[in-house]
């Protein structure tokens, strides 16, 4: 197990405010997790009263990530992962999926949320053959992320970069693209980028609910069009079926025909 004391201090000194709802805890609640408070449940229930489909989006996003990681380990031979914007641990975290298939896999998680740091021990539990680490850093500081991740990952070997529901927290679209490009540029050929985010132009009820949430004073999350999400993969080789609703990305064999939901993502290889 990697020593969580390696995580930088700033987040540890931040007070976890349990009097106001928090997006990571609300997402955890929708995923069926237990790391949330009554205020988060109330906010989550208020959102689902307007748009019940948010629970499907949250859980489909997690299933998409699980299928991505499975592909990366089994078919692409990836053994290193950089998961930026980790969120609170629930079921099938990146290291659990990867190390179940390849115990030697190495995973670095990145988040700047003090509550995620408080749960870092759960994230840092690793198989004896592999390694996990946690970095307290903001997605808007890719240079710090890369420098610290290099203590655990070998950037001369392919890496699976995961940006799951994190780029929507970067309000400026050009900045979000620049962050993704900076992280990908630092990775060698054969690395892969996994991105999924809430999409605009698919479900107007979802858009109204999210816009109302953003206007409530909560930390905003910006929905983007499918074309905008697709541009995060510019210069990379998209894995079939490309950027699609997350339910439609390589569904499990025998699964019912998936519905289209307003969460799109894809996986691409760096040439």
From TrEMBL:
InterPro entries attached to this UniProt entry: SAM-dependent_MTases_sf, SAM_dep_MeTrfase_SAV2177_type
Region (Disordered) location: 249-271
Annotated SUPFAM superfamilies: S-adenosyl-L-methionine-dependent methyltransferases
Protein name (Swiss-Prot/TrEMBL): SAM-dependent methyltransferase
Organism: Streptomyces alanosinicus
